[in-house]
Design goal:
heterodimer, A: alpha/beta, four-stranded parallel sheet, 18 helices, B: five-stranded mixed sheet
Chain lengths: 573, 650
Amino acid sequence: MITIEVNGKKLVAKPGEMLLSVLRRNGIQVPTLCNLEGLSPTGACRLCVVEVEGQRGLVPSCAFPVSDGMKIKTHSPRAVMARKTIIELLLANHPDDCNYCVRNGTCELQNMAHELGVRERKFVGAKNKYFIDKSSPSIVRDPAKCILCGKCVRTCEEVQGVSAIDFVNRGSRSIVGTAFGKGLNVSSCINCGQCILVCPTGALTEQSHIPMVLDALKDPNKFVVIQHAPAVSVTLAEEFDMKPGVDINGVLVTALRMLGFDRVFDTSFSADLTIMEEATELVHRITTGGKLPMFTSCSPGWIKFVETFYPDFMDNLSTCKSPQEMMGAIIKSYFSQRENIDPDKIFVVSVMPCTAKKFEAGRPELGTNGIPDVDAVLTTRELAQLIKMFGLDINSLPTDTADTPFGRRSGAGKIFGATGGVMEAAIRTAYYLITGEDLEELKVQPVRGMKGIKEARIKIGDLELGVAVVSGLGNARELLEQLRRGRNDLQFIEVMTCPNGCVGGGGQPICTDPVRVKARIQSLYNIDKGELIRTSHANKSVKRLYDEFLGEPNSHKAHELLHTHYHKRDVLK
Amino acid sequence: MQTATDFALTKENLGAYLTGSLSGDSAKGIEAMLSKLKREDVSKPTIYVGTGTCGLGAGAGKTLEAIKVYLAEKNVDADIIQVGCIGLCAEEPMVDFQLPGRTRISFRKITEDKVPKLMDAMLAGNVPEDLACFQFRSKTLKGWNNVKYMDEHPFFASQTRWVLAGCGIVDPTNIWEYIASDGYKAFAKAIYDKTRQEVCDMVEKSGLRGRGGGGFNTGTKWKLALQQEADQKYMICNADEGDPGAFMDRAVIEGDPHRMIEGLAIAAYAIGASKAYVYLRAEYPLAIKHLQQALKQAKEIGLLGENILDSGFDLEIKIKMGAGAFVCGEETALIHSIEGKRGMPRPRPPYPSVKGLFGKPTAINNVETLANVPTLVRNGEGWFSSIGTATSKGTKVFALSGNVNNTGLVEVAMGTNLRKIIFEIGGGIPKGRQFKSVQIGGPSGGCMPTPLLDTEIDYESLKSAGAMMGSGGMVVMDDATCMVDVAKYFMDFIQRESCGKCIPCREGTRRMLEILTMITKGRKGEHGADALERFQGITQLERLAEVIKDTSLCGLGNTSPNPILSTLRWFKPEYEAHIYERRCPAGVCPELLVYSIDADKCTGCTLCAKNCPAASIMGAPKSPHYIITDKCISCGTCFTVCRFGAVSKS
């Protein structure tokens, strides 16, 4: 341990650690726009500059390792003036349209300008003008609002292993762009939206479906149904300044009804359905010598990733549709027949923690006779916006329960929202399918937690199953490379596109703070713990669906409605 | 080209020869063969044509062809040797002649039309004195009357040519010519007789400092890399010469590539690197060609590759071509570029000596620095530090350009003053104009005014004058130069070449350029708010410069306000004339010029009125015209077309 002096006060630090982390640990806030927890510092924004005795210029605390006896001034007039000037320079090339910006109020640039007391326009000059790229079904890119902090570029490359975007051009003409300046829709982007979560401004936002949903709601000829994903009820509260991890499931249902939706269903129900299909498929693959390891298929970013970068692994993907699509498919078949409503008139909206789900909803193969399974997808953020628009006070709404027949769920379906959740749910049911009994201890500890790659060997009867749980596609890449090199001790692999699974999804409240994400995960497991029904095969509504309509898991009808296929993708075509 | 067998050299005895431990008849035989390549005397007429890029630009290619045609037609037996640039670019194309028994003599401006005259005269043993530039001094050969010796020629007299010793003299495509002039002896001495630590110590003690920018002690830099434990280390030669007006690295690689290669090899040995890169601009095709040839030749005779000269030292040198980004001269950006990434600097520490190319310890030196190393190692640190100033040892090559008579490459001892370089070596200012300023150190450097002409140049003196050594570009400016305009030019360069990564450099340089541009704008079409913004900008200029300097990520950003700061420091009245009086004293900034017609000189020819795009010139034919100032757009057309000198600008 070494001692450094900050603003006249002695602080203890680890040798070689970056100054910024020492400052943060000791409650000294220096602003930064480009620092990303867990990734190596780039020192691009220069906002975290501080005065270090003996150094010629100001040094960036994010990229400056501490050494014994160092003397630092974090808020000297020189440092503060530099920070303020940098913000003023950014503002000089920033559109002055905060009132129209989706990040108004949550914009880091706006906050910093406010904190540093920027009150007048110091630099007047030309601003860069760019077209907004709305080509992607999931993500809207407005380069004019981009401050080139590079967080999206690094997330896309280092966290997700995708590299759909990078810096192009030089000097003040630099922008973050796609290969050859083509639309994001034809790039290698997998629509995960992790870039949105790290963007400090409104340069990256989701493709909004709010107008579509509002149109459907006011159309008297439409029967508008909404489903909400497992990870939404534990994160929505954050948009209303509540503590992270607070579950507002009941209030959410009330709010959705008040917004005017004709039915409110729980995607956790179709998560149970997915488990029935997927566990059956897994058992079938294992017993009949099918393609292994089998990969989960509920994360649409991951699906596009395989189709784009690892098409040789497409046969390893489970053919199951995702819970969102399964729900859409049974709403427009079973539910439509039961209620005698023309599927053409049913408008299915889903609330998802995800931007890639918007892309998934538009996949042509996910529908019947040209009618898509899902018509519109709202992110958690968009739903919060809608609730505010309708003047609903989340804090004083009563609770309610979702509608039959797709409102009932098991704890297994709910934990889909966390990394390892699908695996745990599948193990619970696969165990039952193979042995005819339930696991004694339903909690499968080795697949829980926030590690990027988790592995376990699970004993089911005579069978020993090698399983892996991966979140974040950079980690998936690592595992896929191991498989390419011939690793063969794994039978079942869960992959979630976003780090930590859907609770960290690209459609969630803007934040990548691990403490907050952990609280969200914990909340899901707590819900599961408190449930009476904790396995998908025990969900009576699911059973009833099979009895009345689908027959049995992996039946012909189930295949028709609940399974899909994949195709190889070429980037830039 | 000759092969090793021609010299009875083998991979086994080359090392012994280079270290001087080869004895007996074989050593004498080799010596005799090699000495022919020194051409102390020739057996038949030998013609040297300077075909470096500057020579070729001046027409040396056509000259060469004309000489070949002449020799073929007249059936003359003569050798033609293509050499690099000797540095006197103003006199290109240059052709040297050497007749048996006579000294080598240089001729200037030999365009193809002058070839027959030159050839006729020289082959007849007569010197065409109007074409002669200088002759080389020789103890044994007979000199020419009425021709200055090289050391008497003002351009060369005050130079100390160490780095440029072979440029324009030797055939760059023949490794044996370099070996004949003691080439690769230092390398052999290093790998046979010295430990890595000893080489580093020697270079450190000599006081050799980086010739490409910051001026860090080269030996110290090597030591830092040497001290690192790693399975692989890299040595990089930075040949990404990007400063406008600097071309010494190109001249060395084109004209004497082995000097740089030998320096690079010694450096690689010193830090323990078995792989080295030369990061070379793709815009230098001739340099690339010569370097490729040179590397191939060095490898063929066993001076590169595995187990060099049986010493156990391996070295592979690769060329990586840069795509012309100025910022790739910054070492971390250069490393990214070699790694195949976008050329953007990253924060230091970690320094490249700890974590460099592909994450391995790496040392980076520029071409001129490395080209200093062979002679330094051969002659010892004491020899090297015998010239120079207290803090800066050895010589420095400057690329002299702009408003100076003798443009070209000059190499002088550290501590030589500017007056000597510009007025003696450079031959002063052309067209009878006055010296105004000299811009040193490329875009990051600064402008030095007349009172600083007696500054003895070294790293420290330049820095304290607000300029910097940089890579040694020296742009001379006469009194018809507007310093605001100069600052604008360099600011424009910098803001375009900024990598765009850090905010102060990317956004700040652009605003500084805008503020400068506003200063040079005229009052026409200006609204109240514009004038206010113009002044607002000016009041921000200094703070902006301060913050950019203080916070930018890399050297390019840190020094980017220099063009403004240094001109502001020495030429403040000129700025004030622009700002307060809206007047450009040098008569350069077009919008600030006021044109008028001298009624006494005007003949009323109407030419100006006919050509005026703004219809702002009035007057009846054959009587004096006048300009309506309010309508005039200051385009200068009238000034250009007037045949009587009646239009003046102020």
